[in-house]
Write a structure and sequence with these properties.
Chain lengths: 702, 528
């Protein structure tokens, strides 16, 4: 019996086709992508993706490639070629799968695409395969469509700034650029993790989506040591590493134009043509608001952290090679040294990439700021890597600080203050009455309930831990949240709030997490304080409607997931995370807060029977709290909150009020005097970035 | 009249902005001392308003010019600059109305010897055709959203987005497209009127300097539109080139030639479309027609890469499976037949810029003390501004060996703000930052109440307006400035000087529209 091959090798461009035309880069541009083996249908159509090569601009299909064809298998895929659409299909498939693999490695779980939200009885439908259209547009653009759960790639006739590189009017295909594919795939993956990050409620959110996608694309490059080796050897003795790596980072992005702009903040050529790392300014974060420019600050910050990590990793090698002088001898570098340096760079890049991805699990599900993200990075890393002997975390903090990126409400910048407060809340069985385990931070009932919830969450972990089918993981997770009833046909996922899991025959009912929370916490001032959410009797006062069925404040449970990772010291993390989300209807009149409206009230319909848009000055604000439970200690470890309530007023005056600071920030950003309409394209063709269902189609426009 | 008076140099220009709504309509009267010498009119249009809306303003204008326009300048063909000639032709057709001479940009030349104008007109025609084709296709697809997204939570949102998109396209179509593929009616109207009147017409090229005998002491420099199409193409950089970034081409199709081809061939036979690959990679059309066939799920895994000859049936099956994935029931929501048409938005913006950059740009230079300059750039965008500096024969012709254009900008005291205060109508380093005069005054043809719906998002650019107000020490004139109130939260930065101070400016004049809030015109008398 021959075992299943671990991976499929596919030829592809390391960058994009233009680099194959330059003598000095041609050799490194051919890369052998190794993607996990899976049986493929022509397309390719696999477990995660389906490539459908329909070109709507000419209303034609291109024939699909069959990567399982023995001839293709025997030669590690088709040869790179711009004129063969089958290679295009192979290239997108290879890079998309590489990106997915990197995420799964970092997160320790399978990637699920963002589900399709439905309007009828059914709440949402799972989308098993991301759809990929390699030739969908005729413009220098490519984007992820959250509405279609699809990647759309464009092609165009180049009108190059540098005619020596591109022939004028030669065709450029965005689906042949590693960076573009990785970037767009990351948008899709991030949407699958946090669906609400697409909706800009503050100036950071779209910038984050862009920057994060770019960070993944960038560091994915650096994990290919072949690419680095060549460049390190090429620059001979010049080991002013930040120049080399920075310039490389930028060149990766510039080949097709627009993606380079995200990396502008890393550095630029001065008047004499010498590339220099850009000096960061603490004002950057305060003053730059355009999503790409703002995103580039984050990219530059992460890049700087990477460079410093790399430098500390290779310091010993340089000392050895330079015999302690720090200055290398003239001439070519020893190939072994080149190899070691490249390996270190690739290793550091892999670490940084994984730190950046893991941080997501420790971020709020809405309204993210760069500061929140920094806290996520630090918390995630501190949880997994107890001994930070190479000061990775400091490298990040330093790089963020130099650009003025600070989380709000933090007095000092240190690993301790940035890491989310470790709560360790929850009584295990019997602990409530044990004085030695007494915990005064919350009332006893709440702590007991947290303990109970935690115990129950172990069941969830058991449910999905060894589940390999993404379909089942999705289904089981939905059912765990929403509950199951015999009345439901198999595979149904129900509405969480509107259709409570109650049927006539309650014996056949398995209550969901939502319902359990509802029973346990619906009215608890302490829980409200902890989460910043309106788990109070008069939640109406904060614009959160009482669910009619229960006469309790309505809420949603989202993003339930198991975090199971092994750290470098062999330590294991077992956590279950979920977020609670609440919505409040806000009314502004003449630029001032003027009360709340009922989000659930039926809206007036237009001629076609579709609900009309909200009236001027009406909008929805969300509050959310991510709760991270440790399955080993059975304690609630972190509560990461974007409070809907004014927690201070609740604590000090016992008053239920909406969090005006957050309301005002969202209003100012979306409607206020300084609201940004985005680019000219968005100004003309949308009613504001926060109203569009296709933010990325707009963002990448120019 | 004493001879001394007729030869006296021009000492004052009364710049009068007629406030028809966002759009340009100016009369400049030139004075030598207190004697009126010459009347120049520049453009006549507004992006909104009917004939009846226009008439009161244009009747006032006719009275003011006293039936004689010595020089009519038409900057470019956009409706908001010329539709007055089409909506109220009688004002200008009137036999009593004399138009002695008219200036157009070289791009309007009907038989330009080098063929450059023709080439440009062809390009424009192609872009317009593609744009209007795409617009029609997009409008016809609203129903598809309704059916394809049936049951989808995001259906309403997608429909609203589509509406917003169509509104944006309509806004641009209104200004850039004529009815049914015809040229813009205002331009045709004025050309006809001038032909009847046998007005002398000049088509002007950059680098020209013109002296007019009735205007002693003045020189008219022609800065644009540029000839060179390639040097105009540049990615602007925010903060140095322009106030806000926007990448667009000058006169070239830029990256959009493929999109233009596709738009133009909507509805044509497959054979007429440009296919980016060899057609052996196409799934044959006949098979596509069998879309509705039942979905077959089993696929044989062989393709043409195998050396044994494919059985056609196998290829057919594979091809069919791909199509079925796209067309299958329940997969409609993932269709992309509409998405690519959204490139029409970028195309329309490029067309709009393209036409803006065909604006005739004038700098009127005085020989009086300080050699003051009035800059009338039409709607020139960054690409045009940049090209002015490339005019070879003006190199080192300014003071201190500067390029003449830079020097002219240094001395500018009156600036007709280009393109209604948009973000890239005024170049930053190459334009705004070069205007150094203490006396600078700016007039902007922007009216936030009478404006095409989707212009509000980009006009005014707040940074530009704020900086301009600072530089002009408050002397920035906008139509309706003191009446502007907008939807909740979208208030404008209050421009310029307080109302009372504004109106007491010695050089300032205005006429209120009886019974209405806005003025008929605003006027500023520039001392040269």
């Amino acid at each position: 019996m021959i075992k299943v091959p671990p991976c499929r090798k596919l030829k592809g461009y390391a960058f994009d086709p233009s680099l194959s035309l330059k003598m000095d880069t041609a050799s490194i541009n051919d890369l052998l992508y190794k993607v996990p083996w899976e049986k493929l249908d022509p397309g390719p159509v696999g477990e995660y993706v389906e490539v459908v090569d329909y070109d709507p601009t000419i209303d034609q299909f291109y024939t699909p490639v069959n990567l399982d064809d023995p001839y293709i298998l025997a030669q590690d895929g088709l040869e790179p070629s711009e004129s063969n659409p089958h290679f295009h299909q192979q290239m997108v498939y290879a890079v998309v799968m590489t990106t997915i693999k990197n995420f799964e490695k970092a997160l320790g779980r399978k990637i699920l695409w963002s589900p399709r939200r439905m309007d009828g009885q059914e709440y949402e439908k799972q989308v098993l395969k991301l759809r990929i259209y390699p030739h969908a547009l005729r413009e220098p653009n490519a984007y992820y469509s959250p509405l279609k759960k699809a990647l759309l790639f464009g092609y165009f006739a180049s009108n190059p700034a540098d005619e020596t590189l591109h022939m004028p009017d030669s065709l450029v295909f965005t689906c042949l650029s590693h960076d573009i594919i990785a970037h767009e795939t990351t948008h899709a993956i991030l949407d699958g993790i946090y669906g609400l990050y697409n909706e800009p409620t503050n100036v950071d959110m779209l910038a984050f989506h862009e920057a994060f996608a770019d960070i993944v694309a960038l560091f994915q490059h650096f994990t290919f040591p072949e690419v680095l080796k060549h460049q390190i050897a090429k620059t001979k003795g010049d080991l002013a590493t930040e120049t080399l790596l920075g310039q490389l980072a930028q060149e990766f992005g510039s080949a097709v134009g627009q993606y380079g702009s995200l990396r502008d903040a890393i550095g630029s050529k001065d008047k004499s043509g010498v590339w220099k790392l850009q000096k960061p300014s603490p004002d950057d974060y305060r003053n730059v608001t355009e999503p790409h420019a703002r995103g580039s600050i984050l990219v530059a910050a992460v890049f700087e952290a990477f460079v410093n990590i790399y430098k500390s990793r290779v310091a010993d090698l340089i000392r050895i090679a330079s015999e302690g002088t720090g200055i290398l001898r003239q001439g070519e570098l020893h190939p072994d040294l080149v190899g070691r340096l490249a390996t270190e760079a690739a290793k550091a890049a892999g670490h940084v990439l994984r730190m950046c991805i893991r941080a997501l699990d420790y971020c709020p599900p809405i309204d993210l700021t760069f500061g929140d993200y920094l806290r996520g990075i630090i918390t995630a890393d501190a949880d997994l890597v107890a001994d930070d002997n190479r000061d990775y975390r400091l490298a990040f903090i330093e790089a963020f600080r130099r650009r003025g990126i600070y989380p709000q409400d933090i007095k000092t910048l240190s690993v301790e203050s940035l890491r989310h407060t470790v709560l360790n809340l929850g009584y295990k069985h019997g602990e409530k009455d044990d004085p030695s385990k007494k915990d005064d931070s919350l009332d006893d009932n709440t702590i007991e309930m947290l303990g109970l919830i935690n115990t129950e969450l172990r069941n969830y972990a058991e449910l999905v831990k060894y589940e390999n089918s993404r379909e089942e993981i999705f289904k089981k997770t939905r059912q765990y949240i929403g509950g199951v009833s015999i009345a439901d046909p198999p595979g149904t996922t129900r509405r969480k709030t509107k259709q409570p899991a109650i049927v006539a025959d309650t014996k056949k009912e398995i209550p969901g997490l939502h319902e359990r929370l509802n029973k346990k916490f619906a009215i608890s001032k302490d829980f409200a304080r902890l989460t910043g959410l309106a788990f109070v009797g008069n939640s109406d006062a904060a614009g959160v409607k009482i669910s009619k069925k229960y006469s309790l404040p309505s809420f949603e449970v989202t993003n339930l997931r198991l975090i199971s990772r092994v750290g470098p010291d062999g330590n294991q993390i077992n956590q279950v995370v979920f977020s609670i989300l609440q919505r409040s209807g806000i009314v502004f009149k003449k630029g001032e807060f003027a009360g709340h409206f009922d989000l659930n009230a039926p809206r007036p319909k237009d001629k076609k029977g579709n609900p009309k848009p909200l009236p001027d000055g009406h909008f929805e604000m969300r509050g959310a709290c991510t709760l991270i439970f440790d399955l080993d200690t059975l304690k609630l470890k972190y509560a990461i909150s974007k409070p809907l309530l004014d927690v201070e007023a609740l604590e000090k005056e016992n008053k239920v009020k909406v969090n005006m600071k957050r309301v005002q920030t969202q209003y100012d950003f979306q409607y206020g005097e300084d609201s940004e309409t985005g680019n000219e394209f968005a100004a003309y063709f949308s009613n504001g970035m926060h109203t569009t269902g296709e933010p990325f189609a707009f963002l990448h426009q120019h | 009249m004493a001879k001394a008076a007729t030869t006296g140099r021009i000492t004052e220009v009364r710049a009068r902005m007629y406030c028809l709504g966002t759009g340009d309509c100016f009369v400049y009267k030139f004075y030598s001392g207190r004697t009126h010498r010459f009347t120049m009119m520049v453009d006549c249009g507004s992006c909104q308003g009917t004939k009846d809306d226009f008439l009161p303003y244009l009747e006032d204008l006719a009275t003011y010019v006293d039936n004689t326009i010595d020089l009519l300048v038409i900057t470019h063909e956009h409706n908001d600059h010329v539709n007055g000639f089409h909506k109220c032709p009688e004002i200008f057709e009137n036999k009593k109305m004399t138009i002695r001479e008219a200036w157009f940009a070289w791009t309007e030349h009907p038989d330009d010897p080098g063929g450059r104008a023709k080439d440009l007109q062809e390009k424009k025609k192609k872009m317009k055709h593609a744009f209007s084709n795409a617009l029609a296709a997009i409008k016809s697809k609203a129903g598809d959203i309704e059916t394809n997204l049936s049951g989808d939570k995001n259906k309403v949102r997608a429909l609203n987005n589509h509406d917003a998109f169509v509104t944006g396209l309509n806004t641009l179509a209104d200004v850039n497209l004529g009815v049914a593929g015809n040229p813009l009616p205002g331009m045709t109207a004025i050309k006809n009127i001038l032909e009847v009147k046998k007005t002398k017409i000049q088509y002007l090229e950059p680098g020209a300097t013109i002296k007019i005998s009735k205007l002693p002491g003045l020189k008219f420099h022609i800065l644009g539109p540029p000839f060179d199409t390639e040097s105009v193409y540049k990615h602007e950089k925010e903060g140095t080139d322009v106030f806000q970034k926007n990448k667009k081409s000058g006169f070239s199709f830029g990256d959009f030639s493929m999109a233009i081809n596709a738009f133009s061939s909507i509805g044509t036979e497959a054979g007429e479309k440009d296919i980016p690959f060899h057609d052996r990679y196409l799934v044959p059309k006949e098979e596509q027609q069998s879309r509705q066939m039942s979905i077959q799920t089993t696929i044989m895994r062989q393709t043409t890469y195998n050396e044994e000859k494919q059985k056609p049936a196998v290829t057919d099956q594979i091809n069919k499976a791909t199509r079925d994935l796209y067309f299958a029931d329940g997969n409609e929501w993932r269709k992309i037949d509409l998405d690519w048409l959204n490139s029409a938005g970028s195309l329309a913006l490029r067309l709009n810029s393209h036409i803006n950059n065909t604006s005739l740009v004038l700098a009127i230079e005085s020989e009086g003390p300080g050699n003051k300059v009035m800059l009338l750039p039409g709607d020139a965008e960054f690409g045009s501004w940049q090209s002015w500096y490339a005019i070879e024969k003006w190199k080192k012709k300014g003071r201190n060996e500067k390029h003449l254009v830079e020097d002219l900008l240094n001395r500018t005291v009156f600036y007709k703000v280009s393109h209604h205060l948009s973000y890239n109508g005024t170049a930053l380093d190459l334009g705004f930052n070069k205007m150094e005069s203490d006396e600078l005054v700016a007039m902007a043809t922007l009216d936030r109440k009478r404006i095409a719906k989707k212009w509000k998002g980009t006009m005014p650019n707040k940074k530009l307006l704020n900086e301009l107000i600072k530089k002009c020490k408050g002397k920035v004139f906008m139509m309706n400035e003191f009446d502007v109130r907008d939807a909740p939260g979208k208030t404008l930065p209050r421009a310029s000087l307080p109302k009372t101070e504004f109106e007491s400016l010695e050089e300032f004049d205005q006429k209120k529209y009886p019974g209405k809030k806005g003025p008929v015109y605003l006027q500023y008398n520039v001392k040269l």
